[in-house]
Every structure is written in C-alpha cells, then in structure tokens.
Amino acid sequence: MDVKKHRSTMKRILTCIGRYKWGVWASLACAFITVLLTLYVPILIGRAIDCILGAGEVDFSRMWGILIQIGVIIAFTSAAQWLMSHINNLITYRVVKDIRTQAFNKLEILPLKYIDSHAHGDIISRIIADIDQFSDGLLMGFTQLFTGVLTILGTLLFMFFINPAIAIVVVLVTPVSLFVASFIARRTYRMFQMQSQARGELTSLVEEMLGNQKVVQAFGHEADALEKFENINEDLRVWGLRATFFSSITNPATRFVNSLVYASVGIAGAFAAMKGLLSVGQLSSFLSYANQYTKPFNEISGVITELQNALASAARVFELIDEEPQIPDDPDARVLEHAKGEVLLDHVDFSYNPEVPLIEDMNLKVEPGRRIAIVGPTGCGKSTVINLLMRFYDVNSGSIRVDGTDVRHITRQSLRTGYGMVLQETWLKSGTIRENIAYGKPDAAEEEIILAAKEAHAHSFIKRMPEGYDTVISEDGGNLSQGQKQLLCIARVMLCLPPMLILDEATSSIDTRTEIRIQKAFAKMMEGRTSFIVAHRLSTIKEADVILVMRDGHIIEQGTHESLLSKNGFYAQLYNSQFAV
C-alpha cells in the first residue's frame, strides 16, 4: 500500500472516530488517571522500602499508612481502567456499525454493472470479514495505544524527577525500540493486505460452490473446484503465515530491547546508589519505572501490527464505499403515478462493453395496454431490453420514454413500482410464504394474499405445507421445488397488479398443465396493461399484439404471429424448428 493511500485510510478512520469526540476525551481522561495513579504506586513502594532501615528498625506506623494509600490508589485505578475499556468498546462498535452501514447503503445504490462484474463472495467478505478484522484492530488500538503513549511519557517525567542522569540513559536506548517497531510495521502491512485479498477470494469461491453444488457434481467438476480451492487456500496460508511470522517477532524483539533498558537502568542505578545519589527505595522505584516504561513499547508494537491488519481491511471496505454510485435521480424527477403504459424506445444504443456493440438504433412504440412479445436466439439482447426498461442500466444514447417522459427524468422507485416483473430466475427471501407473496405490498390483507395465490395456482400447494401461509421457507426457497418458487413469484406480482408487466420466461419451470392455467391467469392480468413477454417457447406468445424478433441487438421483424409466419422469415424458421419432427 502506498504512503498516500495509507494516510488517506488513516485519516478516514480518524474522521469516523471523530464523530464520538466525547468518548475519545473521556477515554483519554480515564487513561490519564490510570497512568498517573499507576506511576505513583512505585514512588509509594519506594517510600515503604525506605521505612525498612535495618534489622529491627522498621517504621511500621508510616509503612501502614503508605500501604493503605497504595490500596486506595489500586482501587481507583481499576475503576478507571474498567470505565476506559467500556468507553472504548462503545466507540469501537459504534464506529464499526457506522462503517458497515455505509458499506451496505453503498451496496444498495451501486449500479448493477458493479454487482455483475464483481465476485459476490468478495463483496460479502468486505462487508463482514474485513470489517470484523478492522474492529479487532481498532479495539486493541483504543485499549492500549492511549495508555501506552501516556505511560511512556509519564514514566519519563517521573524518572527525570527522581534522577535525570539515569533517565537520559533510558532515553538513549529508546530509539532501538522505535526502530524495531518501525521495521516490523513496514513489512507486516503488505502481508495483511494480501491475506485479506486471499480471504476475499476464498469466500467468493466457497459461496460460488455452495450455491451451485448440483451443477458442480453433475459435471464432475469436484476435482477442479478442489484444486482451485487448494490454490487459493495455499495463498491464504502463505500470506497468513508470513503476516503471523512478522507480527510474532514483535514480542521477542521488543522484549530484548526492554531487557537492554532494564539492565542499563539497573547498572546505572546500582552505581548511583553506591555513591549515595539514590536510596534503595528510589532505586526500586526506578527499576519499576524502567519495567513500566519498556512494557508499552511491547504493547504498542503489537497494536501497530494489529492496526496494520485493521488498515488493510479498512482500505478494502473504503474501496467499496468509494465506488461510483448509480446516477442519482434528478432533483426535479417525476414520480410516475397511475401510469398509462405508453412506452417509446427512440434510437436506443446500448452495450455492456464499449468494444462489443449489442443494441444499435432500436426504435419501438408501444401503445398502452398492448402485449409485446420479444423473441430471438440466445444473446440477441432480449433480457438487455428488460434491463433498460427497468433502468437497471442506462442507455448509451437515445432515450426510453414512459408516458412521454424520459425514464432518466422519472424516479427509479416509481418507475420500477410501475412494472410487475416475473423472471426465469426466481428469488425468495428467508421468511414465511405470506411475507414473500406480500413483498411488494406489505400491508396487503389476508384475503388479497390468498386471492393472488389462487390466481397464480399456488394456493393448493401452500395449504399442503406444514403451517400453510405461515410456513417459513429457507433462503431463496431452498425447501421448495423450482416450479413452486416460480408460482410464488407470480403470486407476488398478481398481488400488486401494476400498470405494466414484464414476464421473462415466467413459466419456464412449470409443468405444462399448470402452465396452461397460468397463461389464462396471465391473460386476465394483462388485460388493459402494457406487457412485455420474453419467451423461448413460441407457442406461449401467439396471442401477443406485436411480436418483436431480435437478432444481434436489432429488431429484424415485427408483427402478429400469423403475419410473421406468412412472411416465412426468421421468425417462421424459429417457430418451425420447435415443432420439427
């Protein structure tokens, strides 16, 4: 990670922490009290030792008073430490909550092209695992960094107060600790950065394999999947081992430096005591300070290591947060209400990749209430047209208008609410069947939900479920058949009955008998509503008012079923091929 990016990440973290200044100041105050009282104890211990003048010469009355002071100070120190830890926990988890909320909010407004072009597992890893890693590092930093720095400064002041000469010896050895900490920190960040990246790749692979295990097994891809897993897992092991190695040498290296400082103080202090410059009690206090002075370097080195890991994880999260969001709605964007359903595509050009043209100069005018079927070979742009109508993607040039208004000047929510969409790929959330049907209309009455289910021919199988409409289905309806999931998706649209419909292979997973019933339900639902129907089975679109035949991003034919067959063109070839013997 370059220095500029490192500083930028650190600055953003401090900005996030800055929202809780009250907590930071309170934590600093508790840290100051803790360090001050902790450093005062060695002075009292030294005084107590000086009460022992020799054999049979002990000033017990003075010693007992000092011991009581020590007991009171330790009690206050413990209370201050507890309060500081509690405040640090509050700050840390609120900051982490804020960042995770920012990340998830950004996920909600990212353009669909970002979701389509990035591994879902890696995105999940950034929002979950990386933020957890950041949380751990931040908590340790708050807990030990404040007290560590204050302990070092406070100890130096106390040592200079007792004997400036010996304190200077300590200061001269200090740069060794700083060099060791800096040396380790520079080398650990890269390791933790690569470890986080490998962890994201591994999460992505596991998520991919878990969601498509049937396909993996059906094609005998287990060995290849295992090999890929082992390669990424090996990368994670290597980077994790390196990161752990460099971070683990922090403790012994700083302990070695600590021992140098302690030995230096002991030798210098012993000579000073022999010359009468220090009492035995003061020497004891000095040795205690020398130990307390070096201990924070060890802790801070560990904190720096954890902070390197936290910074690497935070950088990945901030990369997600900084992604360019989808183009926001215009300030004066129209809210589409009571749409008539007039749709116009005017010289529309669009491609996912600028170097690979897809839709070029598409023109189409759809009158309200018309049923438009879109057919064509795979990859011709059928689903892309749906993406453009719903404004999941914006056109590169030209325009799409609904009721005379460019969709870029209509709020996305109202535009999408104006469409009811049933896709070939079903999606259900974890929850009850009732909640899934009412997903687009949460305030729907029980009678409305049941009526929608009946019209979608889902009521009968729902009643056979253990708890009926209150049956909880797993994520993406894993305990239902594909056909049942699709029926629930159809019921969800039938409950809302928006003014425009999009049916993209809506009956692809339903048996022929049920499909006939659903087609009748669709016919009733489509009455008076502008409908776009994407289908591969051409027998399902005979009743469409207009059939658009697409190839290579262009509309090459359009007309009714009969008129297109009479032309004996590309549509006739597609239709006849499905019934060839």
Strand and helix map with partners:
Layout: H1 3-18, H2 21-50, E1 52-54, E2 57-58, H3 60-109, H4 112-117, H5 120-162, H6 164-211, H7 213-218, H8 222-248, H9 250-274, H10 280-321, E3 343-350, E4 359-366, E5 371-375, H11 382-389, E6 397-402, E7 405-406, H12 412-417, E8 419-422, E9 431-432, H13 433-437, H14 446-455, H15 459-463, E10 472-473, H16 482-496, E11 500-504, H17 512-526, E12 530-534, E13 546-551, E14 554-559, H18 561-567, H19 570-578
Parallel strand pairs: 5-12, 5-13, 8-11, 11-12
Antiparallel strand pairs: 1-2, 3-4, 3-6, 6-7, 9-10, 13-14
Helix pairs in contact: 1-10, 2-3, 2-5, 2-10, 3-5, 3-10, 5-6, 5-10, 6-8, 6-9, 6-10, 9-10, 14-16
What shape does the CA trace take?
Answer: elongated
Per CATH, the superfamily of the largest domain is: ABC transporter type 1, transmembrane domain
How can the largest sheet be summarized? 6 strands, mixed
Number of helices: 19
Explain the overall architecture.
The protein has 581 residues and is α/β, with parallel strands linked by helices. It folds into two domains: 3-321, ABC transporter transmembrane region fold (Up-down Bundle), CATH 1.20.1560; 343-578, 3-Layer(aba) Sandwich (Rossmann fold), CATH 3.40.50.300. Helix content is 64%, strand content 11%. The protein has 19 helices and 14 strands. The protein has helices at 3-18, 21-50, 60-109, 112-117, 120-162, 164-211, 213-218, 222-248, 250-274, 280-321, 382-389, 412-417, 433-437, 446-455, 459-463, 482-496, 512-526, 561-567, 570-578, and strands at 52-54, 57-58, 343-350, 359-366, 371-375, 397-402, 405-406, 419-422, 431-432, 472-473, 500-504, 530-534, 546-551, 554-559. The strands form four sheets. The protein has a six-stranded mixed sheet with strand order 8-11-12-5-13-14, sandwiched between helices. A four-stranded antiparallel sheet has the order 4-3-6-7, with helices on one face. Strands 1-2 form a two-stranded antiparallel sheet. Strand 3 (343-350) and strand 4 (359-366) form a beta hairpin. Helix 6 (164-211) runs antiparallel to helix 8 (222-248). The mean pLDDT is 80.
